[in-house]
Amino acid sequence: MKKGWLIPRRTFLRGMGAAMAVPFLDAMRPLGRALAAEATGLGRIPRMAFLYVPNGVHMQEWTPKANGTDFALPGILQPLEPFKKDLLVLTGLTQDKARPHGDGPGDHARAAAAFLTGAQPFKTAGTGIRVGTSVDQVAAERIGRLTRFPSLELGVDAGQQSGNCDSGYSCAYSSNISWRNESTPMAKEINPRLVFERLFASGAGGEADRGQALRAHYRKSILDFVSEDAERLRARVGSEDRRKLDEYFAAVREIETRLERSQKIPDGPASEFAKPTGVPKGLEEHIRLMLDMVVLAFQADLTRVVTFMFANEGSNRSYPFLEVPEGHHDLSHHGGDKKKHEKLQRINTFHVRQLAYFLSKLKSIPEGEGSLLDSAMIVHGSGIGDGNRHNHNDLPVLLAGGGAGTILPGRHLVYPKDTPLNNLYLSILDRMESSTDQLGDSSGRLAYLYGAERSF
Questions:
Q1: Peptide bond preceding 30: is omega within 30 degrees of 0, i.e. cis?
Q2: Beta bridge partners of 367
Q3: How many Cα neighbours within 13 Å face the side chain of 47?
Q4: How far is residue 413's CA from residue 71's CA, in Å, rounded to a whole number?
Q5: Interhelix angle for 283-299 vs 192-200, to 10°?
Q6: What is the CATH number of domain 46-190+280-456?
Q7: Domains of the chain by residue range
Q8: DSSP string across 88-118
Q9: 3-state class of 310 per DSSP?
Q10: What is the mean pLDDT of the chain?
Q11: How confident is the model over 173-208, as pLDDT tens digits?
Q12: Separation between Cα atoms, residue 190 and residue 149, nearest integer Å
């Protein structure tokens, strides 16, 4: 890098209908006091993602038996063994507003709607939906101006925004965990191709569409369209930055290749899940493509706020590739049947394997004096504990990452009965420089995330 030559944190490589952000480079620091104030500790910028799984989990194989640092990961959490020191298992958290409170059945709808809001959803299947603002959108409102996208809302299953999906509750409650305000859900995108184009398209809709059409017509990579800008940048940065750029470009191209391949695979047997063109036929590939694009979005600082639903709440998807032909929701009403427990454990472990994949990608990317995982806060959990009981206390909740040096992971923390889950979110918002005094039914900050202290 030329002595004294620095580039802005938000640098884009541009071409025909494309605008590719670049990852954090040594040439981007120090940019003086502005960057120092923005980054928390040694060049790290905090990000947060919320990953939601439906129908609860098989809690007997989820909850560690020992507390503190000397704990063993039980069966379902075994895929996270390589990331044990990057992980907090949080036991005892409750989402009280998912309970009926006089509204009768509808635990699945309430579980998803309350998961990130801590607010009681108004029971209606009509247009009068009402719940509350979710934690991700509080952060998006406060810091969204710092990135190209204030937030990303992603998922795997298409969702309805109207109609009755659960005992008189609107489908909007079961299909969304992100809420801009009490009556406006943030609809999730499930098509990886559309997510890719959204991340890397530029200009008004017409220009972006023309760029996409040109790339498709000439079978070109998006990298071909920004190649001139990329080469100019590579010539002006040091060898370590060139390596980071090459790895980033390789990851982008790999995703493009996988998207192309997934769209060429012939249709399999008919599925009850209607999906738009461009969605992979295989569930695992679908999930991993989405998670890979979250990694790219974090790496390039396109957004710092993400929500992702592995499936809509109450999903009855079957998992034949796990030798589970029964529907997930049906199995969750296990009635204590050991065979159903074993199949539920397979589904739960599958979801945790996808989390492990995501964490491995984040941990492999250097940032500042650590990794992208060290900068992140990844919440993985469900708004239901045991699917058979439909309970909303002792929820299965994991927190991965170091929060840009403000979290001490590698522990199993057990909190007092009915500790609000939203206390965790208040603590996360503090670390995102998006502090608020109240979120839903929060009663204060969650203690001990930074060791024995009650705050970081």
A1: yes
A2: 370
A3: 31
A4: 10
A5: 10
A6: 3.40.720.10
A7: 1-38+195-278, 46-190+280-456
A8: EEEEEEE-GGGS-TT--S-HHHHHHHHHTT-
A9: coil
A10: 88
A11: 999 999 999 999 999 999 999 999 999 876 545 455
A12: 17
